[in-house]
Amino acid sequence: ADGLLAFSAVEIRRSDKSGATGAVMFFARFLRADEIERVRQTSRLPANLTVIAERPAAQATGPRNLQSWLSGSTGEGPLDAAASGPDSVMGYALVSDVGGRPLAYFTTEHERDVGQLGRRTTWGLMGTLAALMIASACALLAMMLRLRRSWAEHAALQSEHRHVLSDLDQNQNRLAHLIEHDELTELPNRRYLDARLPQLLSRLQAQRQSLALLHIDIDNFKNVNDASGHGQGDAVLKIIARRLCTATSAQDVVLRISGDEFVVIAPDIEGATATRKLADRLLTAIRGPVSLGGLPLALPASMGIAVYPQDGSDGETLLKHADIALHEAKQRGRDCFAVFASDMNVQVNEHLALEQALRRAIDSDQIYVEYQPVVDLQTGLLASFEALARWRHPELGMVSPGRFIPVAEKSGLIVAMTERVVRQVIAQLSEWQRAGLLLAPVAVNVAPIQFERTEFPNFVHAAALEYDIDPRWISFEVTESAWMQNSSKHVVMIDTLRHEGSRIYIDDFGTGFSNLSYLKTLPVDAVKIDQSFIRGIETDASDEAIVSGIIAMSRQLNLLTVAEGIETAGQAQLLRRMGCRYGQGYHFAKPMAAEKCQALLEQLAAVQRVTETMTMRAFKKVAT
Ligand code: C2E
Ligand code: MG
Ligand code: MG
Q1: pLDDT tens-digit readout, 229-274
Q2: Is residue 619 in contact with ligand 1, taking CB distance under 6 Å?
Q3: The overall pTM is greater than 0.85
Q4: I want to staple 104 with a disulfide (CB 3.0 to 4.6 A). Which of 34, 95, 138, 242 is the partner?
Q5: Residue 63: is the preceding peptide bond cis (ω within 30°)?
Q6: How many whole angstroms separate alpha carbon 391 and alpha carbon 398?
Q7: C-alpha 388 to ligand 1 mean position (Å)
Q8: Is residue 426 a contact partner of residue 470, using CB atoms and an 8 Å limit?
Q9: How far is Cα 149 from Cα 268, in angstroms, rounded to an integer?
């Protein structure tokens, strides 16, 4: 009587699922208007409950497919069905009584939104399509703009090309100028010389005129670069170029043909005196001090001269002969010029012959060693020896080191030669050692190229080991300029030799590019003051100043000093007074054969014995 009551019964089972407990839980609820409202709210659908028993007319109100469904339905369990109109979808759920008879049914209706979805999709699709079309239009526009710009550029370039073509003559001239001139000094270069000299010579030939070709090379220019950097080196080259131009006359041509090499062509120069005068003027102009990093620096140069037509009728021969003369000037001690003479050609050939002879001599007895004593200037006693290579050729006789050392250095033969000298020295020391003599250190001269070979310290080590000689008995002399060439590599090498116990001397000190500050960074033990300063020490105030300067500086840097080439007692005395520790020179002894050294070593041992005895006596005296 109260309306429809929905109920459910649930059997209560054991929580371990082993079976039923025998009890049933029973729920029931009236399906009233408030319940239907709750369904509407929770489902958000327009739900309705229609009771069939009360309103048998429902069959008339429900849709046709509902009627057929109702008539065919068993009414078991919640059942859903759908019926569709064009604008909405309808859903039904049948409610049956316990006997299975239909009692009521739920209905709900939902608006169809497929059309809406279709419209939305269509709009979306069209929007995307429109955006795509706009984007491609933009890209097309950009491409067209770019194409137009590149057309414009192309056209500009073409017009420029036309411009360039029309200016070809001018440009060709400019190019020729660039090719035939040196960028740094703006002087004509080697190509200019090669291209123009033949023309000039044929013109001179027609006019029966002469020409002087002066080949100039700055002495030790590499040292400037190494010590002060390439920037400074370039600046110096520019200064020299300007000076050469100033010192020449209008019809002369000044060229820079390579790094530190210049050529001056002086056409129509009359006679040898005029040529010499020009050469002097040029050398003086170059030599004038240049300020390099605040320090004044004199730059001597060497020069070789060849004269047309007597020294050569074509450019190539003239250049070759000027070069030979330049070589000769360098041989004469640099800072001078030499005029080509036909016997110089012979000398060049001689140089080649000498090289071949030396190659054969290296491993023979022709090369041997002489020893020049170095003495303690205070006591006059032997301090050490310098080993000097000697070459006795079967036909040529004695060849002086001044001649064969440069040949050996240029050809690379110096490497093998020095190794031979080192071995001979070590063998000699070993002989003296076996004879029970007191040893004195022997210094071997080492050329810079030796340090290009990393094996040198190993070689020395192996030789010393073989002869059982302590490496501290072998020292090495390295020229000052050698240090400048490849410092870091040399330093490693020299550190290794020093580590073994050898002493290192800087040879011919004062003749290189004397940036003295570098001395303190080098791993050396002693400085050998070059003989050119010693020679004038008594007469030339500047020589004396230089020598005393070197001694003072060496003392501050804890370096020993050796004066080379002492020839008079006066020089020895002066050097002793100046505080120079050691001396070497003809005044004490000339380089001598090993057999003669033996006497000196014996004498040294005797003096040492006497000194010891005297010291003992002095001690005894004090003690008693
Ligand atoms: P250096 O190393 O400066 O050797 C000293 C040179 O001065 C030697 O010339 C020596 O004989 C000479 N001398 C010594 N005392 C006097 C003196 O009182 N007055 C004069 N006027 N000269 C003196 P030498 O033997 O002709 O050697 C010349 C150069 O050849 C050496 O100069 C050295 O640079 C090089 N040299 C010699 N032997 C070798 C060597 O085995 N290897 C290398 N790389 N160079 C060597
Ligand atoms: Mg030496
Ligand atoms: Mg020397």
Answers
A1: 888 889 999 999 999 999 999 999 999 999 899 999 999 888 889 9
A2: no
A3: no
A4: 95
A5: no
A6: 6
A7: 6
A8: no
A9: 61
